[in-house]
Structure formats: structure tokens, C-alpha cells
Amino acid sequence: MNGTGVEITAGLGGFLAVFFLACVVILLGFDLNKRLRRLNHQEELRLEEERLNQERRAREAGEGDTGAPGESPTAEGPAGEGRGGDGRVGEVRGGAGDGADDRPSS
CB of 56 within 8 A of CB of 50? Predict the structure, then answer.
């Protein structure tokens, strides 16, 4: 207690101001939570719609393909033998002992 005997406090006005601010913060928290849930749901719907559109486009592109399966210019042969850079088929590259191994020798 001080020497004059007078108490200096916030009183009823200070209590009401703090109580009002606490209520506003709590209500803003609920509103923020609601908005975030809504945004999350909208994003999930957008991603699902995008995935369905990609599947539909892939299906339409597959129906429009008139070539026989495996006759594309980049198709590889049975054992992964594709065309080399000079057009030769079945060329084996990177065999043992040609220095193509990137591991350091120890």
C-alpha cells in the first residue's frame, strides 16, 4: 500500500475493455478457422476437378491415336535396344572396360 491510501487500478472500465478485446479475438479466431476450412475444401474440389479433366484429356488422346501400339518412332526393342544416335539398331553402349564407369577407382 502506498503512503496516501489511494488505490489506482483500472477498475470496471479496464476490466470491460480487456473483456471486450478478448471476446473480439476469440470471435476472430472462429471466423479465421471457418474461412481456412472453406478455402481448404475449395482447393480439394479444384484439385479433384483438375485430376478428372486430366484423365478425360488422356482418355480422349488415347482414343484419337490411330497408330498401332508400339509403332512410335521412339519405341525400343525387346531388350531395351533402341536406335543409336547414328541409326544403328541394337548397339550396346557402356560395356565393361570402356571407361564409362563414373565410380572413382580405389
Answer: no
